[in-house]
Automatic annotation (TrEMBL):
Residues 62-167 form the 2Fe-2S ferredoxin-type domain. Gene3D superfamilies: 3.10.20.30. It comes from the Eukaryota. It is found in: Mitochondrion. Its cofactor is [2Fe-2S] cluster. The keyword Heme does not apply. One of its GO terms (biological process) is P450-containing electron transport chain. This is 2Fe-2S ferredoxin-type domain-containing protein. Coiled coil: none annotated. It comes from Capitella teleta. GO terms for cellular component: mitochondrion. Belongs to the adrenodoxin/putidaredoxin family. GO terms for molecular function: 2 iron, 2 sulfur cluster binding; electron transfer activity; metal ion binding.
Amino acid sequence: MASSVIRRVCSRAPAFLPKTLTLLPHPASSSSVILPKVCLKSSSIGSCRMISTSRILQKETITIHLHMPDGEKVTTKAKIGDSILDVIVENDIDIDGYGACEGTLACSTCHLIFTPEQFKSLPDQATDEELDMLDLAFSLTDTSRLGCQILLTKDMDGWNIKVPSGIADARDV
């Protein structure tokens, strides 16, 4: 069966998908296939045709360990590509006031502390906006970052991350 390849650039694609998708018609239905071997249905998002199915949205998971201020260690599964803020909210992990601005970089309540090795291996450096919020965070360290800005990767499997003993909501300053 001959088919033409359709390429679409999607600026609003989820982080786990490439920005350019190669679509092929699926031989058995009117759905499309994203290479390699994933059957998709089309739906419109923004100015591009985006893909959605439960199969592609089943992201690979890793395990992270959160060390709470009271000494408790909370171990949770986390989807690759999600922010640490998303993981804490989706898993109903009780951290008082955590993520008050819902990841809009308007507070510092999702402040986390990483080991020096972890901090060096984070895929992205903090932006100026994140650094401005971190300046207002409680118990700031040289290895502090905001959980809303850290997208999980496969390399973070098994990481131990410290939750500071208090929060400072930058919106109240």
